[in-house]
Amino acid sequence: MKYVPDATADRKFEDDNTVDRVGVDGLLSELDEYAVEQALQFREKREGEEITVTVLTVGPEKAVDAVRKALQMGADSGVHVVDDAIAGSDYLGTSLVLAKAIEKIKADAGVDLVLCGMASTDASGSVVPAMLAERLGLPQVTLASVVESQGDQVRIKRDNEGSTEVIGATLPIVLSVTDQSGEARYPSFKGIMAAKKKPLETWSLTNLGLDADQVGLSVAYTQVEDTEARPPRTAGEIVTDEDGSGAGALVDFLASKKFI
C-alpha cells in the first residue's frame, strides 16, 4: 500500500521535480484500501486457519500513518520501509524495495498472497504489481473486480470494455484489485484501540540488503524534467439567445475549441 499526498491539499514538487511527500498532508491511497479489504476478507473466510495480514509501505516517516490506518481496519502487523536514499525512485526502484521487503517477510513467516491496489492515486501507473510478480517469480492476476477463493485456488473476474474475463490461479500469486472489488471498511473504535498494540516494524535499505546506489533519483530510468502549475480557472463564456442566434453561437464556440 502507498502513502500519497492528499488530493485536496496544496500539492507541490521539490526542486528536483519529484513530488513533495514530506511538506504536504498525506494519507493511505484510497485504491489501496480495497486491497486491504480483500486481504481481510481472505482471512475471515478461512476462520480457524492461521492467516496473518501484513501491510507493507515504502515512504517517508509520515507514511507510518497509512500503515496505522490499515492496522485500524484489521490488519495484523505492519512494515514501513523508510530511507532517505529511496526518495525519487521510479517504478523499477520502488518495486525492487518492495520485493526485497516481501522476501524478508516470506523468510520470517511465509507469503502466499501479495495483494495490491489497481493503481496509486498520485502516479496512477498500475505497473508495480506486474513488476513485483516478475521480481518475486510469481504468477500475476491483475485488475480483479470480483475475487473468489477456496483453499489455494483463486478465481477473479476482470471487466474489459464489452466483456468480462474469468481467470483462475493457484497460490502463491500477486493479485491486484479494482475499486469495484468491495467497499473498504471503516476502522471501528475497537479497531483503533487494538491497532496501538499491533507490531509495526521500521526497516531501512540495510535491513533489506540493498545499497543506496541501487535506488533513488540518480539511477531512475524516468525523471520529470519540468513542471508547470495548472493555470487558474477563468470565468466561463455565457451565450445568450435573445434573438434566436444562441444555437449558432454555441456551435461556433464548440467548433473554435475543437470539441466538434
Would you mind describing this structure in some detail?
By secondary structure, the protein is an alpha/beta fold. The protein is built from 7 helices and 11 strands. The strands form 4 sheets. It has a 3-stranded parallel sheet, sandwiched between helices. The chain has a 3-stranded parallel sheet with strand order 5-10-6. Strands 7-8-9 form a 3-stranded antiparallel sheet, with no helix packed on it. The longest helix has 19 residues. The radius of gyration is 22 Å and the shape is globular. The two termini are 42 Å apart. 32% of the residues are buried. The mean pLDDT is 91.
Helices, by number, come to: 7
Q: Helix/strand-derived class?
A: alpha/beta
Mean pLDDT value: 91
Number of separate strands: 11
| Low-pLDDT segments | none
What share of the residues does DSSP label as strand, in percent? Answer: 15-25%
